[in-house]
Amino acid sequence: MAGIEFDRQIFAPSAAETTKKAAPQAFGAVLLVVVLGLAGFVGYKIFTQTSQANAIAAANAQVEQLQQQLADSQKRVEELEKHRKQAKSETPVVTAQPAVVKTFAPARPVYKIAAASALPPQPKPAPVAPAIPAPSASTANANAAAIQSELSANHEAWQATTDRLADVVGVVGQQQNELSETREAVNQLLSQTRRQALSFELLRGSNRMPVGPVTLQLKSVDQKSQRYSVCVYFEDRCIELKDRVLNEVVVFVVSKNTAPLELVATKVLRDQVVGYLEVPVEKQ
């Protein structure tokens, strides 16, 4: 039996198909190479620009540093110039003076006087200050005792002064209480009586003027300070109301166990006093 023969060209790829497949692969490789080249070029440009910018910044910094150093040097030169000008202005001007011709007198003989004693002079001894003795224990105790006694005396004097002040305060308080009681009693008497106002006009230098149960006489008048003095007569006895002020209520008692009277001056003129006297009428 003869062998079966196959056409191998049918199964083998044709040259055209192989060429078509190889062409895209070659184009892709070329494109990859081109892309890599462009990337490298762009990276090189970026690196170059960055390096240039860094170099420019460093150059600017150096230029600024040089300018600062130049300004400092200029300031120092100006300061040195100022100091030099000041030193030059302060330098005294020396005026030329005429030369003085010195004439030398002939030498005179010099005589030396020697001491009669060959011993050197002895210095005087320095005065020695007397030593101050240190205070002894007995002296210190005596001083402490004196100070203690003085303190005790001062304390006793202070205590005595305090006691006197306390006594004075007590006396003043007692007097104030008595005055308050007297004022209360007078106010009570005034509240228990009905009063009648009797007007009067007193002239200075005139005779006595009867007003109610008493007789009034003007003693003195001070119109500037609005003060006056009146003498109240009751049974030929004078009760002097001295240095009273305008509109002041003057309360006085003419005899024992009688209601108090009130005198008020409403006008103080040059030589005249006008006012009224309140006298009790009857008990309530």
Structure commentary:
By secondary structure, this protein is α+β, with helices and mostly antiparallel strands. It has 3 domains: 11-67; 140-191; 194-283. The protein has 3 helices and 8 strands. The protein has helices spanning 8-11, 15-90, 137-191; strands at residues 193-203, 209-211, 214-222, 227-233, 238-245, 250-252, 261-268, 272-283. A 4-stranded antiparallel β-sheet has the order 1-8-7-6. It has a 4-stranded antiparallel β-sheet with strand order 2-3-4-5, with no helix packed on it. A hairpin with a 2-residue loop joins β2 and β3. The protein is elongated.
Short overview:
The chain has helices at residues 8-11, 15-90, 137-191, and strands at residues 193-203, 209-211, 214-222, 227-233, 238-245, 250-252, 261-268, 272-283. It has 284 residues and is an alpha+beta fold. The radius of gyration is 68 Å and the shape is elongated.
